[in-house]
Amino acid sequence: MTSPAALPADWRDLYALTKPGVMRLVVFTALCGLLAAPVMPPLVIGFTAILCIALGAGAAGALNQWYESDLDAKMKRTAKRPLPAGRLDRQTALHFGVGLAFFSVILMELATNALAAILLAASILFYVLIYTVWLKRRTAQNIVIGGAAGAFPPLIGWVAATGRIELLPVLLFAIIFLWTPPHFWALSLFVRSDYAAASVPMMPVVAGVDATRRQILIYSVIMAAAAVAPWPLGLTGWIYGAATAGLGAVFVAFAIAVSNNRATEPQEMRPEKRLFAFSIVYLFALFTALVVDRWLLG
What we know:
The protein has 13 helices and no strands. Helix 2 crosses helix 7. The termini are far apart. The N terminus is likely disordered.
């Protein structure tokens, strides 16, 4: 008996492969990097650059889900994704991800410059090969090192506009790099049973809850200090300086609450959930303040 032909992939499943929630933050930070640059490209070039970064992020997300479909099937929060749910096959996800990656990098080179295209390619390869393939299943430092992948967008946006790497976008890279561990570790604390079930060595699974909470506080303090650094270095004005100082103080306060929490059950981890939610607001607000500062104060 001949098995029925597979139905074509629904566009919503392909869209879900791109991790749209993550993509929104990627696109926003990239746009802010572009808008904060001292040279503004023509509108169509700027739009194309941001589109390429979005497509590159989508490609990385699709290839991540292609490779981790077995892990996603073991975790409650990811079991309904297109691949573990059986709505897409792995070959479709692989072709979709590779196609998006090549298209985004080639278009970036044609529309802007070779350096921006190289950085975009590096960010995709770093997320897929270094984080997803190498680090994710091997070390509790996966998020620490792998966080570099998500730190590229503002740097790429800046380089797409200017064609060169300068100190401010490097500091923006560092801020996101340092922001990533407390952001994801806060999440991993109240979903650690998922990671344990999938044998993913996230920090709470390997080092324990208390050690993870201490690490969150340490990284939060370092991140808050790094976020203020562009102001005394003369790279931004007082608007950014005041905003990031206030935002950093709130972030550290939330991290202290997490560090002092002794709850072990997910439903009792309200400080962790508050920090995770605020961490997203923090990054959006910080980059908004950067753009406002650059446009109003030059």
